[in-house]
Amino acid sequence: MSNQNTTQWETVIGLEIHTQLKTKSKLFAGTNTAYGGEPNTQVSLLEAAMPGTLPVFNEKVLRYAIRFGLAVGAKVIAKESTFDRKNYFYPDSPKAYQITQLNHPIVEHGELVIQDDKGNDKTIRINRAHIEEDAGKSIHDKYTQYSAIDLNRCGTPLIEIVSEPDLSSAKEAVRYMRGIHTIVTHLGICDGNLQEGSFRCDANVSIRPVGQKELGTRTELKNINSFRFVEKAINIEIKRQIKLLESGGTVTQETRLYDADKNETRPMRSKEEANDYRYFPDPDLLPVVIDQAYIDNEKQFIPEFPAQKIIRYTQDLKLKPDDATTIAHDKELSEYFDAAVKQLGKAKPKVAANMILGEFSALLNANDAKVEDNNISPEQFAELLEALAAGTISHKIAKVVMEKIWGTDSTAAQIIDKEGLAQVSDTGELETIVKEIIKNNPSQFEAYKGGDMKMFNYFVGQVMKQTRGRANPAQVKTLLEEL
Amino acid sequence: MEFKGIKQIAEALRAKDLSVQELHDFYQAKIEKHADNLNCLINKTSELAQKQIQQAQDLIDTGSGNPLTGIPLVHKDLFCTKDIKTTCGSRMLENFVAPYDATVVDNLNQAGMVTLAKANMDEFAMGSSNENSYFGAVKNPWDLTRVPGGSSGGSATCVAAGLVPVATGSDTGGSIRQPAALCGITGIKPTYGRNSRYGMVAFASSLDQAGVFAKSAEDCALVLSQMCSFDAKDSTSAQVDKEDFNQNLNQSIKGVKIGVIPEWMGTLPENIRRQTQQSIDTLKNMGAQLVEIKLPTAHLAVSAYYVIAPAECSSNLSRFDGIRYGRQCDNPKDLNDLYVRSRTEGFGEEVKRRIMVGTWALSAGFYDAYYRKAQKIRRLISEDFASAFAQVDVIAAPVSPEVAFEFNAKKDPVSMYQADIYTIPSSLAGLPCMSIPIGLVDKLPVGLQLIGNNLQEAKILNVAHQFQQETDFHHLVAEGFAHE
Lengths: 483, 484
Fold this sequence. Notes:
The complex is a heterodimer of chains A (about 475) and B (about 475).
Chain A: E1 9-20, H1 59-71, E2 76-77, E3 80-81, E4 84-87, E5 97-100, E6 107-115, E7 121-133, E8 137-139, E9 148-150, E10 157-163, H2 170-187, E11 199-209, E12 219-224, H3 227-246, E13 255-259, E14 264-267, E15 280-281, E16 288-289, H4 292-297, H5 306-316, H6 321-329, H7 331-342, H8 349-366, H9 378-389, H10 395-405, H11 412-419, H12 427-440, H13 442-449, H14 454-466, H15 473-482
Parallel strand pairs in A: 12-13
Antiparallel strand pairs in A: 1-10, 1-11, 2-6, 3-16, 4-5, 4-15, 6-7, 7-10, 8-9, 11-12, 13-14
Helix pairs in contact in A: 2-3, 5-6, 7-8, 7-9, 9-10, 12-14, 12-15, 13-14, 14-15
Chain B: H1 6-14, H2 20-38, E1 41-44, H3 46-61, E2 72-76, H4 103-110, E3 114-119, H5 153-160, E4 166-171, H6 177-183, E5 186-189, E6 209-214, H7 217-227, E7 257-260, H8 262-266, H9 270-285, E8 289-292, H10 301-316, H11 335-346, H12 349-362, H13 368-389, E9 394-398, H14 413-418, H15 424-428, E10 433-441, E11 444-452, H16 457-470
Parallel strand pairs in B: 2-3, 2-4, 7-8, 7-9
Antiparallel strand pairs in B: 1-3, 4-6, 5-6, 5-10, 9-11, 10-11
């Protein structure tokens, strides 16, 4: 018995990620998919399961799914995929079946490279990504006597992305989930909003003694909609399973719910634990048949992904690796950066990156704004960087100019001109100012002459004060040294 | 008044010998007289009819009508009709009002037809005798103690009794052809996909197909030409142009190769076999060339059908859960109780039986043994037909191994199912097929089935029409129902 407590456990995790596709209309009807409408205002006859209604496949969904397949290097993008019915009774699924793809999914055998916990590259295999429809929402806490149903979400297109059980820790699972999130948001096929449920995941978790080949019994953690909760839920579940096995118990294969408030997982209330979904091909829908040209045509919509961007930023644009990574992973920010860099002449991309991550981001935060709000266009931003590079303004003034450009159509030049912010580089003018300061501060000047280098900074400060920061620091330095 | 067919009525309307209102009143009087006794209607649609009469008359008066404008009809009560009850012959949908028109209904409305009523039917189109309706059994005009066949029994009876010149029906495994045969009228089920299924309440989606009943092949062709359309709302709708099925009716059938299946003929009771053979001989005498063919897998059709159809039905009928529409039980204790009691109260015995069979056939562990195998058989049957149609233009076959039987004669559901033996193979293959009257056996009508290749409705209609030029069986009317 004693060696039981010294067993080394290893964790095996597979994720099923439900990605809502950003189509305007639903998977099988023209109904609006926008989030947050009044309950049951975005429901067609089809979603209400009116007798006699039939599904008609939204082709946009097919194209989005193909793009995902291309992005994860899928070995199979099916030339013929089919829809199946998954039968179950629940009020938020009025047809009493979900249309999904069981036997012939559109995408199979892709992969995603993540970093393992030691920082090494690790390939996570993606078993499949299939198209299916989302269910409506059951609301159990609105009325005491009844449950409420909102069918707005019903029929919203999803791709369910199913990984192989290749993930070995909660942290890896999060990295994988973030990786998929990056892909679908950069593809523009999903808005990636976890809070609104656009991107949510089920985690299959099991443990086994290190060295054991066969997998342990897994539990499925349902509907986790934040990266943080995925990590917490998996870790708490691993702990639970280890405790259970080490105390001589067994893990039951079941669906569990993560309760973020209590930080625990518990079995979902369900009488029909062994649900038989009676899958069969949906006779209302024909197989989706496409050719290679159709698939190839989608390649033009595959953007440059963060990993590729990072290489370009560091190697071609000489960005610091950290800056490159931060910008590359933010789709909007990187698009902004790329647009601005395109306009640059003399100015360096590196300065653009500094400014975007520094002053520009601060400005966004202060105004509670987003990059894509375009309060400063990439063109305006580039002009500002050019003025800086030309020495017309200093870095400090650049920040001031940026604030003035915010929300206007003005160019940097216009602002500099209007506000008189151009750097004073005229030696004559600067010399007059310096001389006057020396005259007014004779004792400090004596000390400086006597070798007190602190006084050097004092004079630079005074000049800057006098010129409201517009003096060219290098010239001030030269003048002071000459005098 | 005596009407030979739609064409003659249309001519009378156009010539102003007859108004749409007068035409309507004539049939309305017959409905008043017979419908209750025959129990062939579920709901009358008088208000809609009045509106449509006016519209039709306007069309005719402005010269913009077509041969169907003003012609009265009834719809089988599984076609959704906007703001009018669509019951499917079920207690479940006793008070269900659809908020939209089925495409088929819409097409015929557009043509200017006048809807008089919704016809009785076997509940959710499940049955071969029309005894499975929540609204009671329909009587056969030829013998009121006998069934009209099913599931479109109400529609068939309406036409056979002369209550309307035209009725819509639906055929999943024979539900147009068999009642047409048992009631002595003409009925056609076109190729799967010819008619939109949008708005036709589903029984078995891969088999359901709308069709039409009338006295003659010519009338069927006229209606079918307006009824069929490609419909983007139905993904299984055939992407073919609208076709005028009347175009080839008058072609001679000399040299047309007609396939006969000796194996099937051999299984018929003697009196029906003799009648069927006579009609085939008539075709031969008209110049058709008879070719013996084989459909080696067809004997498995009934078994395969009674797996596939119930499987699909078990899923299709799951939406009737008592929540959004349809029957809801009183005071449900909880969700499960709501489901169980609403469905127990709402569905009849045969529907429940098929839901159970289908649920079982799709269950884990049984799927391969039943559903997958049934699909395999279905493919083989299609291949059988494909090889047959490499040799022949049209297949002539029996419709039913029996004439109309008495109510409650069949207590065993399997014996009822087995009677679908001749209609199911072409349903599984999705082929166009029809039944035409070929005379009486023991004073009861017998039909002949004509099966065409994919999308070849025009060919079977041509053979049927030519046969009806040569014979008078389609003019036979049951005693007491002839137009005066």
